[in-house]
Every structure is written in structure tokens, then in C-alpha cells.
Amino acid sequence: MGFIKILKSYVLGSCLLFVMSPAASQGLVKYVQPMAGTATATTSSALKHGSVLARYANTIPAATVPFGMTQWTPQTQASENKCIPPYYYKDNVLNGIRGSHWLSGSCTQDYGSFSVMPITGKLKTTGYGATFKHSDEVSAPHIYKINLTQYQVQAAVTATERCGMMQFTMGKADSLYLLIKANSDYHEGFIRVDVKAGEISGYNPAHRIYQGWGKSAGFSGFFVIRFERTPEKTGTFLNEKLFSVDSIKNDEGAGVYAGFKLNKGEKLTIRIGTSFTSLEGARKNLQAEMPGYNFDQIAANTKAKWEKTLSQIKITTTNEQDKRIFYTAYYHAMQQPRLFNDVDGKYPRFAGNYQVEQLPNGNYYDDFSMWDIYRAQIPLFEILNPPFIDNLSKSLILKGKQGGWMPIFPCWNSYTSEMIGDHTTSVISSAYLKGITTFNADEAYQILRHNAFDIPASRAEYVEGKGRRALDSYLKYKYIPLEDSVPDAFHKMEQVSRTMEYAYDDYALARFAKALKKADDYTALIKRAKYYTNVFDISSGLVRGKHADGNWVSPFNRDQKETYITEGTARQYTFYVPHDIPGLAGLMGGAAKLELALDSLFNKGEYWHGNEPGHQIPFLYNYSRSPWKTQAAVRKILAAEYSDGPGGLGGNDDAGQMSAWYMFAAMGFYPVNPVSGEYLLCSPIFDRVTINLQSGKKFDVVCHKIGLRAKYIRMVKLNGRTMPNNYITYRDIMNGGKLDIYLQGAPDKNWANKPIYQPKGIK
């Protein structure tokens, strides 16, 4: 990981003001590197703080569209096992092209997937993996290609919203066999070949994870494959055994084959429809999105979608590496939440049992890595695509209505109670407060309130994952004591972290309640938003485990991972009070003590960028007398924790959160408190950023640099007027205009260093 270099120097007062021409603004897809994050990270913080699994960003080189139903990826890992993505860069054997529902950048599991593997020559149904080199691959957002020299065939795949198209090009005249398998680790997959209808169809039942682990998720991944020409030979197989029957199911190693005789240079194209409702849904999706077999046209259309999407943010810089990192991050930030409904609006009922619901309008989305994405990925699209956020909110509200409780971490269209907190509250409250709403606000509020105030009537409901974990202890003690081990959760214990995150969620809901004029709820919730203070130990200046009798845990290890902290240390988690940093500073003894505590964290090497609770930490100097330290810290993280190439991410990307952090920080502002609509300033790494808003307005961030190494803010102007604050607001951005940031080589220790110029705490 090299430090990001700024290659062009500027004289005093100079700046780069040109606007990219239409020709220059095209071709952004070329900067995207889908392989980024497929190799292990080597950053210092990842090596020190992360487990072996956490060092993988766990992204996949997916050919897809933004937020598409199915991602199409090379498959080097054939299972759907937890924490094993379909593809690792270190692998050199391909065993298929997968229609995947992997949660990008996660340590979870794939589900409802299937794979298609081309082989030539004699039919074989075991040991057919093909060795390859990375020089044999081409990977872009809209297409993936690989030359399988072992079989002398090229395989390529492209995508639409719900479908995929594959094309196989022969390097010699030979037999081509396609092996199709449902990747069911539960051995429940079904595949059928229907020569008369000219299709292969199948499904892979999805299973729950975390709460209710292993139970049916109440839907399957369905697929329908259609061929450009009729296969000359078809059948089913179970490992090495071949059968003449037309279907096979519930066996490991089961699949279908289709054989063709092709000449050298001849191409075979197949179309694949996917659905979460039914085979008929997959057929409808296929007919609507891919009525023909023109591979090049589909790939061109998908590339155009990515070009249009990526061009919503245009950056000006002479540093090509920075462009690659930025637009790769943009691509990664647009993998999930996942489109879940068919073209006719049908989708599987949330937490249902193969029941199908019908949307009146819009789309239904799932796979919200909520503990991660509420921090920056969702706020990014509050700016870029407010109607999309409104649609996401409606999808979440539907889940709450259909299941009776708002899900904590809605993935696999099921309750999971994965991670901690109740951050759906943050997403919906933030959307409403920013005016991003066509949803029924009172209905949404009541579902969120149910989570915040009520405990499930039966243990069975609670065990299923409904309601906040340990809410009874939280309400009784005003913190969660160590005696409550939170047994009915995948993340057990973690009492201090859970207390702190509930306090933030209560703040978010309090703001929603206030906007709806629910005064009593507001009073109760805003008081609960201060419950983080009950796990703060004044004597140590850090959060600390606490017993039910009020005594602190002993011994106290501030820099070791403890059971009462989520995936981190007490020192790291102390700074998770996004809604009330001035209040946290007060507990520490004032802003100067907050600054010293931050200094200690960074000086001791205890900052861990690979895990989300730390993402706001570098920006917290903006609440002290030294905002310039935020500018230095963020620049260092941008350089050390992100690069291009396969190892370019310092930890699990977690559905785009790590990538969204980069995008915000590189552009010069970050939402420490997502609900507030305030964005803490840092120094951008680009000369100019232009955000093309959906309203037709533009928001420009323009850097004026004194010298080559200029990274410290000396002055900020908003629409031509000097702005003393070290933050901007959602309204500032969405109104359009220009933010001029003047940078110099030495810290300006007087810039925005007083509380009047900094965000306020709870209000």
C-alpha cells in the first residue's frame, strides 16, 4: 500500500477549475477494478487487529448492474459456506460461472446460487475444474471473460437487473458441454432439462443464518436457462454417474449437462432468468429483460448503465490511481441492498413460507448489512439518489408490517438479529428528517417504536429474532449489565457496545418523534440517548463493562478485545457516540481531553479502520481545538488503507461501507451522525469533485492548493461566502452550489477550532 501521491503542484491561489468535456467525462468504467478486495489485505491495522478472515474484503468480481438481483462471478469456491466468497484471487482453478447472491464484502454466506461450467472434448462430471492465470481474465462491472486454455474455450458473462447472459467461443472444433449445478450445501437443489421447451430450470432453497440458523428462509433462488440452439445431447448426473432422466434433486454433486457440436470460432449464447418467487417469475424476467440473444448489445447496455451511474460524481485529478480507487469504491458501494422483486412486482413475503406478495409500485429490496451501511453507504445515496432511499425505506416498512417487528439486520429476507443495535431506525428516521419520504410516516414510526419500547410476548418470537436483544435489561438498568449474556443472539454479550448503539438509535427515533410532534416519546427517547454515559468510567476515561450492582469489571484491559465490546476494544469503542460527541468530551473532562484521547488512540496504533465502529473516529478532532488533526488523520488513512489491485481494501467491505467511507473522505466530508444531516469536513484529495444531483443541480467541491503537499484547511467558502464552520449540511449539498476549500502545507491551528463552529451534541 503506497501513499497516495499528488502529482501536480500549484502556485499560491491557483486551482484547477476546468470542467470535464463530454468526451473526457466518458470512460469511467475503465477505472473500476472488480478484482479489488479479492485478495487478503496487508495494511498494518488489518494485520494487528483483524482475524485472518477479517483481512479479506470478501468482494467478488461481479458482472452486474447497480443493486441488481443476481451477480455473475467466476467461481473458484464451490460451496455456499459462511465467510467463503465464490472467488478468491489466490485460486487458480475455475469450476463455473456463478449466479450469486453473495453479500458483497461480507463474512456471511451465499444463497440460492447456481453455476454453469463449460468444458470441451469428452464429457466428464467430476474433476472438470480448469486451471487459469489472471492474464486469462477480463473483469469489468458489466462483463467478465475468461480464456480456459485447458478446454480452448472462452467464457463470458454480462447482466441485466434480474438476468444474465453467457457466451462461449470455441478455440477449436469440438464438443462443448455445459454443466449446470445448484450449489445447495443442504443438498436440496433441483434441476430439470426440458429439451422440447428448450430450457433448463431449477432452484436452490435458501436457508436462514444467525437466528433460526439452518431453517428454511421461505423462498428459493430460481433460474431458467434458454439456449440459442437446441442441445444435441442432454442428461443428468450425480458425481461421475450419468442418467437419462430429465431431472435430479436433493443430492450432493447433482447436475444437468447439455452438449453441442461447434466449429472453431463458433459462439454459443445462453440466457438466464433469475427470481426469488418461482420458475415462472424467472421466465417473465427473462422475457422482459432479455428477449433475444445479442450478447454484445446487452453488454453495451449494461456498460452504459454503469457509465451513467458513475458519471454522477466526476472527479478531477492527475492521479490515475486515485481515480481507480474512487470508481472501484463507487462500484462496490452499489452491490446491495439487492433488488428482490420480479418485473411484475411479485416478491417473497418477508419471513414467510413461500408466500408471494404483490407490489403496487416501486421495487422491493433486501440484504441490508444494516450495522455497517447506515454509517456512510446509505447516507451516500441520500445525496445521490433520494428516490432510491425512499424505496429502501418502503421495503423496510413492508418487512416490519409483514413480520410484526422491524428487522435488525434484514438479510435472506428473514429475521437475523445479526450484529447489534437497531439501525433500521437510523435509516428511516434520517430519510424522513431529510424530506426523503413518500412513505406513511406514522406507520413507519409505530413499527420503529414497537422495537424501541416493547418486548415480544412469547419467547418463541424473541428466539426467532424479533425485537431488540436485551431490551429488558437496557430499560431496567439504563445500560446492559454483564450479568445479561444476551444468549438468544449470534453476537452474545457485547453489553457495552449494545448499550451505546441503542443510545444512538434512541436519539434517531427521538428526532423522528419530535418531527411528528410525539412529545412524550421524544422526552423518553432523548433521555435514553444519554444512556451511553452509564457505561463510561470517569476514572479511566473510557467505556467499561459494568455489573448489575453498578461495579465496574475488573481487571480492565483497555486495548484487548473483551466480551462486552463488539469486535474491538474498549478504547476503540469509547468514541462511538456519533450523536453526542460534545457530551462524550464533557465526560472526559472537556474538548482538550477528547483531543488527548484521540491522540493516544492513534499514537498507540489502536485505530482499526477495517471495522466499522471506528469509521467516525478520525473526524472527531473536528469537535476539538485541533480540526487540522482530522485532516492529517484522514489523509493518512486514505493512503494507508486503500489502494488499487486485488488487495486494495483493509478489511471486509461489508456491502459497501468501507468503500463509501473512502468516497466521502476523498471528496472532503463525512456523516459522523447520519441522522443529523451534518457532514464533517476534511481535506479532499481531488482538485475538483462535481456531484450531479438528481434535481438537475450540481454541487462542486473545488480545492485551491498552496504547494505540492497542501493538505491543511486554511479557509472554506460556500457559494462565495467565507464559512467558519467545519461542517456542511444536507441542505447545503442538495441546494447545489460550490464549496471552495483552500489548502496549505502547514496546519492552520486557528481554523474552526471553537465550539461555535462545530456540530452540537444532543439537541
From TrEMBL:
<feature type="domain" description="Glycosyl hydrolase family 92">
    <location>
        <begin position="281"/>
        <end position="744"/>
    </location>
</feature>
<protein>
    <submittedName>
        <fullName>Glycoside hydrolase family 92 protein</fullName>
    </submittedName>
</protein>
<dbReference type="GO" id="GO:0016787">
    <property type="term" value="F:hydrolase activity"/>
</dbReference>
<dbReference type="InterPro" id="IPR012939">
    <property type="entry name" value="Glyco_hydro_92"/>
</dbReference>
<dbReference type="Pfam" id="PF17678">
    <property type="entry name" value="Glyco_hydro_92N"/>
</dbReference>
<keyword id="KW-0378">Hydrolase</keyword>
<comment type="subunit">
    <text>Monomer.</text>
</comment>
<feature type="signal peptide">
    <location>
        <begin position="1"/>
        <end position="25"/>
    </location>
</feature>
<feature type="domain" description="Glycosyl hydrolase family 92 N-terminal">
    <location>
        <begin position="31"/>
        <end position="275"/>
    </location>
</feature>
<dbReference type="InterPro" id="IPR005887">
    <property type="entry name" value="GH92_a_mannosidase_put"/>
</dbReference>
<keyword id="KW-0732">Signal</keyword>
<dbReference type="InterPro" id="IPR050883">
    <property type="entry name" value="PNGase"/>
</dbReference>
<dbReference type="InterPro" id="IPR014718">
    <property type="entry name" value="GH-type_carb-bd"/>
</dbReference>
<dbReference type="Pfam" id="PF07971">
    <property type="entry name" value="Glyco_hydro_92"/>
</dbReference>
<keyword id="KW-0106">Calcium</keyword>
<dbReference type="InterPro" id="IPR008928">
    <property type="entry name" value="6-hairpin_glycosidase_sf"/>
</dbReference>
<dbReference type="InterPro" id="IPR041371">
    <property type="entry name" value="GH92_N"/>
</dbReference>
